[in-house]
Design goal:
Strand content: 35-45%
Order of helices and strands: EHEEEHEEEE
Number of strands: 8
Strand order of the largest sheet: 3-4-8-7-6-5
Structural class: alpha+beta
Shape: elongated
């Protein structure tokens, strides 16, 4: 599993502490000095499960948040969530066009001015996709995908 490194400066706590010390009395002549020490956190990079089908493309530029393989009964379903800095509707339209170019047919679709939801079926796989404004990051697009075998939709 690949790992990425994020450096988070700890100056916020030091700044608050310095402001608190200044606000709690003492003369104006006192000086507070501090050293900013970066905190290094290593987070795992999310990857698709090894058994994810090669013939199902991911939306262009998706940064994966989660990628889960769920097995129940005789079907395996993949639940994928991610993010992209672009706008939901153009990203969703581009992904839908890519799937249709590969022979997937639309079985359902719901559009609004801010999001797009659709389900398509190919010869072996269905893809249910949603592209929404990302409320958590307050920018970009949250992407949700469910991918599974076509015959599992009729079970």
């Amino acid at each position: 599993m690949r790992r990425s490194t994020i450096v988070v400066p700890s100056f916020v706590a030091l700044s608050v502490g310095a402001m608190g010390m200044a606000a709690c009395g003492g003369s104006d002549d006192e000086t507070v000095s501090s050293t900013v020490t970066p905190v290094i956190a290593t987070l795992p990079t999310v990857q698709l499960p090894e058994s994810f089908p090669d013939d199902v493309p991911m939306p262009a530029g998706i940064e994966l948040d989660e990628a889960n393989e769920l097995t129940g009964g005789q079907a395996t379903i993949f639940d994928i969530t991610g993010w992209n800095a672009g706008d939901p509707v153009p990203l969703g339209e581009a992904y839908l066009a890519e799937l249709r170019d590969l022979g997937y047919e639309i079985t359902s679709r719901v559009d609004s001015t801010e999001n797009i939801l659709f389900t398509v079926e190919g010869p072996e796989w269905f893809v249910s996709a949603g592209f929404y404004p990302d409320a958590m990051r307050e920018r970009g697009t949250a992407i949700g995908l469910t991918v599974g075998p076509v015959d599992s939709t009729n079970a």
